[in-house]
Amino acid sequence: MSLKSKGDVLFLAGYIKAVIFRYERDCDDKNKPYMFALCLHVEIDFTQGIKKPLMRTLRVFEMFK
After folding, report:
1. Distance between CA atoms of residues 42 and 50, nearest Å
2. Residue 38 is part of which domain span?
3. Burial of 22 by CB count in 10 Å (0-12 exposed, 13-18 middle, 19+ buried)?
4. Tally of domains within the chain
5. Nearest alpha-carbon partner for 8 in 41, 44, 43, 51
6. What is the per-residue DSSP string for 2-24?
7. Is residue 33 in a domain?
8. What is the pTM of this model?
9. Is residue 24, in this structure, part of any structural domain at all?
10. Burial of 35 from C-beta contacts in 10 A (0-12 / 13-18 / 19+)
11. Is residue 20 within 8 Å of 39, Cβ to Cβ?
12. How confident is the prediction along the chain (65 residues), in pLDDT tens digits per residue?
């Protein structure tokens, strides 16, 4: 995956928001620490090499879904 345009970044940001919304709706208390970790990664600056930390975060998220 490569982010070539502002549209790509906006699409990715929308996807992250949808993932977080679903996770917040579906999670129970014991999973909240993972939600917090996901939120921290989402807050990273899009201009500072988003690919690796984001993909790692989404892999972790998939494990706890």
Report:
1. 9
2. 6-64
3. exposed
4. 1
5. 51
6. ---SHHHHHHHHHHHHHHHHHHH
7. yes
8. 0.30
9. yes
10. middle
11. yes
12. 455 666 666 667 777 776 666 655 555 555 555 555 555 544 444 445 555 556 556 665 555 54
